[in-house]
Specification:
heterodimer; A: about 400 residues; alpha/beta; Alpha-Beta Plaits; Rossmann fold; 7-stranded parallel beta sheet; 5-stranded parallel beta sheet; B: about 260 residues; 2 domains; 9-stranded mixed beta sheet; two-stranded antiparallel sheet; 6 helices; 15 strands; about 25% helix; about 30% strand
Chain lengths: ~400, ~260
């Protein structure tokens, strides 16, 4: 199977030839021709101005997957996995509930939230206030610590029992780890790390996500598998509390014992402290690069981060030069972060760094080299000597906080 | 002990980008490379082999078009013992489910696999889903985002996992699957001897029929998800360069960020 060319529409412009990452397209007699090297990645489809290229359609799902043909009308409702960690619900779950509420109103179906863990009493209330109609609770000592196996089994069991049409979870380290297990157990499709969700005219979930290191976006459907499943990047959806919380119901579900067993044993869980603590969770990340020159100079960034309750990251260059701890590294081989504000200080902006932070809402670049590639991707650029600019910026923040100097 | 390392040939993403003027995708000599995260998976396996040269066999496994064998040759020349290429026109267009399904059939065909190691994700799709889905289809336990692997008993591992807020220490019995981070070690260089051997090595190619899979369970036909549209990401608002003296720059940036409602300001 390969991409399909509508010869009548093809003008032989050759754009798709340049776009194809595997070199599978060539021009034969002035028309595009696709070779067997085509991997059906779809990059050519969007590149064609003349709508001459399409991809063949998926089948009705793997034939041995036990899915009925066509949309099963027995699946109903939108579910959100409410991520519980160390006694709290992660805020991505509220963001997802808010979005699920909007989508559910469009489809006129209820919103369910699933709470899995131990000693969960009282946590349902918040879930109702963000839009849940019903909260399914599985509360058991065996679920006190996260394991992919037990959590995956429980969520898959609930989905089999109650048959939601859509199942969403945060694309956190937990969600991205165990949700694929749930999809595999349920034999359905899953789209990773979405940044947009919508319902199309057929009532299907349109899942949009970045690919190729964020250089392209893809919209994806799961036409036949149920539930339609997606993990969603934290902070891209707005969490909004309802003015009138819903009068929801709590459904306490007991799960067969054997599903609670995990072959792995959790020996220890640690929460890191220090400058990199909460790098992934922080609203503000201040990152330093080689431009900082000395380890001591990172203290400046730490002070700035403390003032705004943020975390301190670093480029690979800074880590390799010994200026920062490896746990602070942001980028392809480090952490991926997407805070509200990302400040890149003295970082040139190599692609390996950019892929780890380009999901940030606001990117500020501070660099004395106006040609630094980081300025190509930032929202606000400051060409300045960081050793002069950062202290001045810190002063500015302190000033507004009521300090005498202003 | 038999370790299978799952690898993927990917286009070097840094060259796949949007032409800012025409807003179309441009590709300048995009090279195909071994997925960077799979380097660490291979190194993790080779380090286990270092502890017991004769007792450990490392097989690299990939699914892709015929030219994907390049990454297997690369892996062999760094010390892997065996390689298998899953290649068949019917495999094209596989989503993570169909990919995991095909890989699981290949690993079942090998029969004696004790440990499967994958990179944490591939840089083209960035899904990180194949590892967990593959483990689930093989019905073996797994651990993701592993930064350290130790043996506590001959068939029990203790692994350190990176979590969003810290680390977790897990005990995990074999057979198992791990997806690993760069912390497990940088990939060793090619050795002369292994490179010579890799050149002569005939890589077996398995298609759907060899795996006993019918064509409607693999590739695009066997997939649940369908890409309906591929497009350029919307360019963020025009970049604003903040000019002036350092004092003016600091004040202006502060104002702008405050207007945008950045928490903490």
């Amino acid at each position: 199977m390969k991409a399909l060319i509508e010869k009548d529409r093809c003008t032989g412009c050759g754009t798709c030839v340049d776009v194809c990452p595997v070199g599978a397209i060539s021009l034969v007699d002035g028309k595009a021709e696709v070779s067997d090297d085509c991997t059906l990645c779809g990059m050519c489809v969007g590149s064609c101005e003349f709508d001459a290229i399409s991809l063949p359609k998926v089948g009705a799902g793997p034939s041995d997957a036990g899915q009925p043909h066509g949309v099963a009308p027995t699946h109903r409702g939108i579910w959100v996995y409410a991520e519980w960690r160390h006694g709290n619900i992660h805020r991505v779950s509220y963001e997802l509930l808010s979005r699920a509420r909007q989508l559910a109103d469009k489809k006129k179906v209820p919103v369910g939230a699933v709470l899995i863990g131990y000693k969960l009493d009282g946590l349902e209330k918040e879930l109702f206030s963000y839009g849940a109609d019903i909260v399914y609770v599985v509360d058991h000592p065996a679920l006190a610590h996260f394991t992919d196996e037990a959590y995956g089994n429980v969520l898959a069991f609930l989905a089999k029992q109650y048959r939601p049409e859509i199942l969403l979870a945060g694309a956190t380290s937990i969600g991205r780890s165990f949700i694929p297990r749930v999809a595999a157990l349920l034999k359905t499709g899953l789209t990773a790390d979405c940044t947009d969700l919508d319902i199309n005219d057929d009532g299907l979930l349109v899942q949009t996500r970045p690919a190729f290191g964020g250089n392209i976006m893809a919209s994806i459907l799961c036409p036949y598998g149920r539930p339609q499943m997606a993990t969603v990047r934290p902070r891209v959806m707005q969490a909004c509390q309802l003015l009138e919380p819903r009068q929801g119901t709590v459904e306490k579900v007991s799960v067969p014992e054997h599903l609670l067993k995990s072959r792995v044993e959790v020996l220890e869980e640690t929460i890191s402290e220090g400058p990199s603590a909460s790098l992934v969770e922080a609203d503000v990340v201040i990152s330093g690069g080689r431009g900082l020159k000395k380890k001591e100079n990172f203290r400046m960034l730490e002070e700035l981060a403390r003032l705004v309750n943020g975390a301190v990251g670093a480029s690979r260059g800074a880590v390799e030069a010994g200026l920062a701890d490896p746990s602070q590294q942001v980028g392809q081989t480090g952490r991926t972060v997407a805070p509200v504000l990302y400040m890149a200080v003295g970082i040139s902006g190599a692609i390996q760094h950019v892929v780890g932070m380009q999901g940030s809402k606001i990117i500020v670049a501070v660099n004395k080299d106006p040609e630094a590639p980081i300025f190509d991707i930032c929202h606000y650029g400051v060409v300045a000597d960081l050793f002069e600019f950062i202290p001045e910026f810190i002063k500015r923040i302190k000033g507004e906080c009521g300090d005498s100097q202003n | 002990m038999h370790i299978v390392v799952c690898v993927k040939q990917v286009p070097e993403t840094q060259n796949v980008r949007i032409d800012p003027t025409t807003n179309t995708l441009i590709r300048q000599g995009v090279a195909s490379i071994l997925n960077p995260f799979d380097h660490f998976a291979l190194e993790a396996a080779l380090r286990i082999k270092d502890m017991d040269k004769n007792g450990v066999k490392v097989t690299v496994l990939t699914m892709g078009p015929p030219q994907a064998k390049e990454v297997l040759v690369d892996a062999l020349s760094r010390g892997a013992d065996d390689a298998v290429l899953l290649s068949d026109r019917a495999f094209a267009g596989a989503d993570t489910w169909a990919t995991s399904y095909t890989l699981s059939a290949a690993i079942k065909k090998m029969g004696d696999v004790d440990l499967v190691i994958c990179g944490k994700q591939a840089i083209d799709g960035d899904t990180a889903q194949v590892g967990p889905e593959l483990a689930t289809l093989l019905d073996i336990p797994y651990a993701t985002y592993v930064s350290r692997i130790e043996f506590v008993e001959p068939r029990v591992l203790r692994v350190t996992r990176q979590t969003d807020e810290g680390t977790a220490l897990w005990k995990i019995p074999l057979p198992a699957l791990l997806t690993v981070l760069k912390d497990v070690g940088r990939l060793r260089v090619r050795s002369y001897r292994a490179t010579l051997r890799a050149r002569r090595y005939e890589i077996p190619i398995w298609g759907a029929a060899d795996l006993g899979l019918s064509e409607d369970t693999v590739g695009l036909k066997g997939s649940f998800t369908q890409v309906i549209k591929v497009f350029s990401p919307q360019r963020a608002k025009e970049r604003v360069m903040i000019e002036g003296s350092v004092q003016e720059q600091a004040a202006r940036l502060y104002e702008l960020l405050k207007e945008q409602g950045v928490p903490g300001l």
